[in-house]
Design goal:
With 109 residues, the chain is mostly helical. It has a single domain, classed as Up-down Bundle (Methane Monooxygenase Hydroxylase, Chain G, domain 1), CATH 1.20.58. It holds the Pfam family PCRF.
C-alpha cells in the first residue's frame, strides 16, 4: 500500500469515526466514546493536511485547464501559469508534510 492509499484509509476511518461518535449507542458508552474520540483526535491533523493536499492537486488541474482555455488572452494565461507554479510549490510542501504525518507500517494511526 502506498502512502496515498494509507492516507485515504486514514481519511475513510476518520469519516467512520465521525459517524460513530454521533451514534447514540456510542455516546452512551463512555469508555468506547472516549477511545473513539482519542482516535479521531489523533488523526485529525493528518486528515486535514491530506484534504488540503487533494485541494492543491485540484488547483493544479484547474490551472492547467485555464492555460489550455486561455484562448490567447495573455493576462489570463500568465495568471494561470503563476497559479500553477504556486500550486506545484504547495504540492511539494504538502508531500513532505504528509510523509511525516502518514501512518507508518504497524502504526495504529
Amino acid at each position: 500500500m502506498n502512502i496515498y492509499d494509507q492516507l485515504q484509509a486514514v481519511e475513510d476511518r476518520y469519516e467512520e469515526l465521525g459517524e460513530l461518535l454521533s451514534d447514540p449507542d456510542v455516546v452512551s458508552d463512555t469508555k468506547r466514546f472516549m477511545e473513539l474520540s482519542k482516535e479521531e483526535a489523533s488523526t485529525r491533523d493528518t486528515v486535514t493536511a491530506y484534504r488540503e493536499y487533494k485541494q492543491v492537486l485540484q488547483n493544479i488541474v484547474d490551472a492547467e485547464e485555464m492555460i489550455k482555455e486561455s484562448g490567447g488572452d495573455a493576462d489570463l494565461e500568465e495568471m494561470a501559469k503563476q497559479e500553477l507554479k504556486d500550486a506545484k510549490a504547495e504540492k511539494e510542501e504538502y508531500e513532505e508534510k504528509l510523509k511525516i504525518l502518514a501512518p507508518s507500517k504497524g502504526s495504529k494511526r
